[in-house]
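Could you please consider the sequence and fold appended to this message?
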Amino acid sequence: VRTWPFNPIVQSVAVIIKTDGRPLNTRVELLMGPNNSKQVVEVYTEDGIDRPFFAIIETPEATGCVIRIKNTAPLEFPVYASVAPYTVGDYDFVSESYNFNQWPML
């Protein structure tokens, strides 16, 4: 299980999941608040290197949004996942006195 928190200004995220050629069996969840699943995708493919999973997931503009990816395959089938911001909303950084060092890494 791995989670990726992100800021409220992120409007959508790109998710890519692959394996080293073995079956890919995962669960992708968009969480808002502690363990509150808003969207869930069950993913299965027989070859995670030839047919990796890729999706753009729109995220609601609210605090506490997290992408959680669970490997539902046996432990001997490792999964490699990456989540990154895809679109970021407009934000006026000049008028806001916000410390950028407080933002979590995406």
User: Anything to note?
Assistant: The CA atoms of residues 12 and 58 lie 4 Å apart. Confidence is low (pLDDT under 50) at residues 97-106. The beta strands are 2-5, 10-18, 24-32, 37-45, 53-58, 65-71, 80-88.
